[in-house]
Amino acid sequence: MVSERCKMAVRVELNKLGLHFTPVKLGEVEIMENLTAEQRELIKIGLHSSGLELMADKKAMLIEKIRNVIIEMVHHSEEATKMNFSDYLSEKLDKDYSYMANLFSEVQGTTIEQFIIAHKIERIKELIIYDELNITEIAWKMNYSSVAHLSNQFKKMTGLTPTHFKKLKDKRRSSIEDIGNAKKTNLPGS
User: Fold this and answer.
1) Which candidate, 12, 2, 20, 6, places its Cα nearest to that of 43?
2) What is the DSSP secondary-structure string of 109-134?
3) pLDDT of residue 6
4) pLDDT tens, 133-187?
């Protein structure tokens, strides 16, 4: 659940069944009642028709939480996070980073680091397109140590320098849901 559309779809499905729930957050909602097997199946079907899935597996839920923390941090946070990403995730989710990293790699087919980089590059594309910040400001906002580091990573992931990307007329971007998915991500040379 990474968008307002997703959260709305969840609220609609839960309201259809007359269920009481806490405010829907990215990737989770707490339902006040105990669900029957029939209610769970109806929610699952309703969510599936909206392109979402109901997760009951604790590992799948942890993966979704990791994804959502990264998306929130990269795409929706106005402050540059100065904390190491592994420490940030461990603190935010109260889990051992090594465990999360191994589980994420096993399930997602990519590392947490590569997932973060893919999202950062997509956010950088967005900031370049908005044309409100220069590349130095973007590097600072996205927590890069230097413009050179940002430029090297951007070129490695896209095949273009940020300056060349800015000059393109057709700036290709990906939806948040598709970023970092090993099967869907178009990487240079693929």
Assistant:
1) 12
2) SS-HHHHHHHHHHHHHHHHHHHTSS-
3) 81
4) 999 999 999 989 999 999 999 999 999 999 999 888 666 666 777 777 654 444 4
**Which pair of tokens denotes residue 138?**
């973007």
> Which has the closest alpha carbon to 124: 179, 69, 87?
179
Q: Which CATH number fits domain 58-178: 3.90.1150.10, 1.10.10.60, 1.10.10.10, 2.60.40.420?
A: 1.10.10.60
What CA–CA distance (Å, rounded) separates 102 from 117? 17
pLDDT at site 185: 43
Q: What is d(CA 17, CA 63) in angstroms, rounded to the nearest whole number?
A: 27
Residue 152 vs residues 117, 121, 149, 161: alpha-carbon distances, Å: 12, 11, 5, 8
Q: Which of 150, 60, 67 is nearest to 107 (CA)?
A: 60
For 18-62, write each residue's pLDDT tens digit: 998 888 776 678 888 888 889 988 988 988 888 887 776 788 889
Instruction: Report pLDDT digits (tens) over 64-102.
Output: 899 999 998 898 877 666 678 899 999 999 999 999 999
Q: So where are the chain's domains?
A: 4-49, 58-178
